[in-house]
Specification:
single chain, 6-stranded antiparallel β-sheet, 6-stranded parallel β-sheet, binds NADPH dihydro-nicotinamide-adenine-dinucleotide phosphate, binds (2R)-2-ethyl-4-hydroxy-5-methylfuran-3(2H)-one
Length: 331
Amino acid sequence: CVRISAMSQTAPASAEISTIPTEMKAWVYEEYGGVDVLKIDSNVKVPELKDDQVLIKVAAAALNPVDFKRRLGKFKASDSPLPTVPGYDVAGVVVKVGSEVKELKVGDEVYGDIHEKALDGPKQSGSLAEYTAVEEKLLALKPKNLDFAQAAGLPLAVETAYEGLEKAGFSSGKSILVLGGAGGVGSLVIQLAKQVFGASRVAATASTGKIEFLKSLGVDLAIDYTKEKFEDLPEKFDVVYDAVGEGERNVKAVKEGGSVVVLTGAVTPPGFRFVVTSNGEVLKKLNPYLESGKVKSLIDPKGPFPFDKVDEAFTYLETNRATGKVVIHPI
Ligand SMILES: NC(=O)C1=CN([C@@H]2O[C@H](COP(=O)(O)OP(=O)(O)OC[C@H]3O[C@@H](n4cnc5c(N)ncnc54)[C@H](OP(=O)(O)O)[C@@H]3O)[C@@H](O)[C@H]2O)C=CC1
Ligand SMILES: CC[C@H]1OC(C)=C(O)C1=O
């Protein structure tokens, strides 16, 4: 039930559930480094709400490579101050709304990537916690057919997949080669290309053990990169979406006048790199494809990892072998 909290000193500017604590359990690192800097702390301050934010009771979260790259200090020049609660992807229940929140209300089941700019001043308090504060514009209502773990595995990866395809001008009838087709982003690029953008032909790379997985996603040409070089194939593509960081090789697979999307590593013209911007409107636009099952949330079968095993989840993600998403649930 929702009632005006006895905890607030004055009439609250927002509705809230009275059971919100002032401290919470969260994963934290106080210095940059390897997995060993991660600690679970039971006395982390529940983040204060800004007027345009909602407070979410976290039900599930997901890891992304940016989480470990940030923890290693690769983006320290534009990072928020330490200590950091990591985590970009969240799914959970709204327990408090700020005074400028327009649509969301207490009790709504939501999901999203909580950092609007992935590398430019990400929040100090992330989603690997019992509560997290997020701007309403970065969130969407959870698709009815997905549980919290499935929803948490989507936001950053699907928004990256969508944004890269949009920036590449991908459209119906075009062909695409996805480098890293079995990963969190690549597996969604494949699905969006086919189901949302109307690709004429989708090719993708993975290692031997993941070829059947690629085919299960509807890939027309599954390339085992341990056996052949994609750039040596006679077939060239309208778009090459590089989620691996293949450097100069990716541009050898694109048609004259085509586009090469680069997510990480060196960029060779005509390739371009971008950094994902979180946007709840993208999740809303994709909701019909998610609720119809045309686009699926894919959770690595080694998970979901329970909250107290986040360090193990990071160790697994950092092998660079995850299939789909590494999800944390229950929290
Ligand atoms: N610029 C941006 O805004 C963003 C950048 N990124 C970056 O994109 C990259 C991918 O992210 P994400 O999908 O989450 O990563 P994942 O950790 O999910 O990628 C793991 C997958 O990569 C595959 N892989 C590894 N090496 C190769 C290879 N040489 N060829 C083909 N597949 C390979 C693995 O398959 P296998 O075991 O078969 O090798 C595995 O399935 C990361 O570097 C990430 O930092 C991600 C999101 C946003
Ligand atoms: C510069 C790419 C960087 O940004 C994100 C979100 C990653 O995962 C990266 O590697």
